[in-house]
Amino acid sequence: MNEAMERSLSDLVMERVGFGIFVLDRAMNVLMWNRFMEDHSGLAAEQVVGKSIHASFPELPRAWLTRKIESVFQLGSSAFSSWEQRPYLFKFDPDRPVTGGVDVMQQDCAFVPLTRGGEVMAVCVTISDMTHVSVMQRESEEVVARLEEYANRDCVTGITNRRSFEARLREEFLRWQRYGGELSVLLFDIDQFKNINDRYGHTVGDAVLRVTAQRVANAVRVQDTLSRFGGDEFALLLPCTSLADAMIAAERVRSTIGDVPVEAHGVRVRVTASVGGAAARPGLPAYEVLIHEADAALYSAKRKGRNRSAVLA
Amino acid sequence: MRGNIFTEEQRDALQEIANLAMGQAAARLARLLDAFIELSVPRVCVTGVNEAAQTLREMTGFDQSVTAVRQSFRSDFKGEAFVICRSRAVGSLWALVNDPHIYLAYQTISQAELILDVANVLTGAYVSCFLVQLNRAPIFSPPDLLGENIAFDDFFRADLLAWRVAVLLEVNFALENHCFRAHLVMLMSEDSISRLHGALNALLVSV
Fold first, then answer.
1. Fold of A154-311
2. Nearest to A165 by CA among A145, A142, A190, A186
3. Which of A176, A249, A280, A297 is most deeply packed, by most CB within 10 A?
């Protein structure tokens, strides 16, 4: 193969490769501009070559680009830029005219020294289209966010689950340990829920749980966390709340559950609940103790005849 | 077997090349960054895959988690370079961009981009000076932020690695006021060691 043919082959390759290639000298003049760059910028090689890149693209980050190019001339080794830090160099349309989803082509850039006899003659800049990777990454981030949401939610009632409640309680407990203040927890359950299940079936039982969760959720403050703790047991975390105020909330919870019977699947079910409350106080070693005390209080409410709220004596 | 991976002559040559590269890289970096950069005398050793993390801990003196950037380089032999620094020291890198021209260039970049840029410059300067001594012109992959808070043990998952022994070359860079120190570590594994032998022998014959 002769030299002319080799040259025409590399010209053809330049034209056809799927990424942008252009060459700059130290004064930022364009020496070469391939077809990818023509197609995406709308400027032909004849319009760009021989002029400063900034004359054709005044919007480019001038100082940043100068710095990149200068570092390649001085060090003789490549410089890079990633779409993850800097989404694009040129404001090109992404090659997704049909599927869309991204405004600007996401770009990885490499600034490669072209050397002859140990001296850097020019810098070759390559532009790789990373849009598909950015789209994939965004999609997988969305999936992870959705999975996290599922992992923290109870599938019957739609409120947060025990895992999420304990995480939230741990945080609030740490905050309370560090800064003081008040922090209370209520545990409540539906009186003789097993009887409801036995008498009306699980579909009605589930509906009772759902309605209970909805009613209580509507009766608490935004900063409170309501969770299904397990079975027919619910937990309510009340930050910045004294035990006395928590027990007022406990009565509100009890009446919002019990005042009106639950109607589900053609039956009216009278539902009552018992509530146990506990509050953080100096010397409390761990948040688990708070749950344990609220549970013991709930047990004492049951023993005293149900449909009431109690604290540990 | 580890001790005699290189002959004494080869080991001396390797150390000599590492030293020469250090001087050249320091000069280039000083010009580029407009700041005096102190480089330590490079340390060369051979490490097994199971001791690699411990070796890095000892060489750097960092026992907490670190900020690390990884980059591949290749000619006919290939390896990877890590730039490692204390996570909380990264902030002082902005000192490197205090010249007005550089300041303009950097005013819109994120900390991650700054770390990647500085790591790429250190690796590019040192590794290419090193390989040029062996008559090689290396090609680099883009730098890749391993993490801003990562443990040495996460660098090398021995169960996932195909090598047992590597040549490790360490040099550290400090800004003249010592507010920032970074370690550059080059690692080349078995299949590259034999090619490194060839390159060293060619060099020894030529002098």
1. Alpha-Beta Plaits (3.30.70)
2. A186
3. A297
Give dist(CA A207, CA A209) in Å, integer. 5
A62 CB neighbour count, 10 Å cutoff: 15
Which part of chain A has CATH 3.30.450.20?
A: 3-137
Cross-chain Cβ contact A61/B108 below 8 Å:
yes
Mean pLDDT of chain A: 93
Is A207 in contact with A217 (CB distance < 8 Å)?
A: no
Residue contact A75–B124, C-beta within 8 A: yes
Amino acid letter for position A178 = R
Residue with tokens 């019977």: A261
Give this prediction's pTM: 0.75
Q: What are phi and psi of A202, to 5 degrees?
A: -70, -30
Of B28, B104, B143, the CB nearest to A80: B143
Domains contained in chain B, number = 1
Q: Least CA distance to A60: which residue of chain B?
A: B105
Is any Cβ of chain B less than 8 angstroms from the Cβ of A222? no
H or E stretch covering B168? strand B165-175
Residues of B in contact with A64 (CB under 8 A): 105-106, 108-109
ipTM for the predicted complex: 0.82
Residue B169 pairs with which residues in a beta bridge? Answer: B44, B186
Report the residue of chain B nearest A85, measured CA to CA: B113
- Kindly state the tokens that stand for B45: 């050793």
Which fold is adopted by the domain A3-137? Beta-Lactamase (3.30.450)
HSE (side-chain half, CA atoms, 13 Å) at B109: 27
State both tokens at A140: 């997988």
| Residue-number span of the structural domain to which B103 is assigned | 8-206
As given in the structure block, the two tokens for residue A297 are 């209080």
Number of neighbours of residue A167 by Cβ within 10 angstroms = 13
Q: Encoding tokens for residue A265?
A: 């699947």
Note the pLDDT tens digit of each residue in B104-152. Answer: 544 556 778 888 888 898 899 899 889 988 888 889 999 999 888 888 8
CATH code for the domain of B56: 3.40.1550.10
Q: Pick the closest to residue B166 from B155, B181, B179, B176 (CA basis).
A: B155
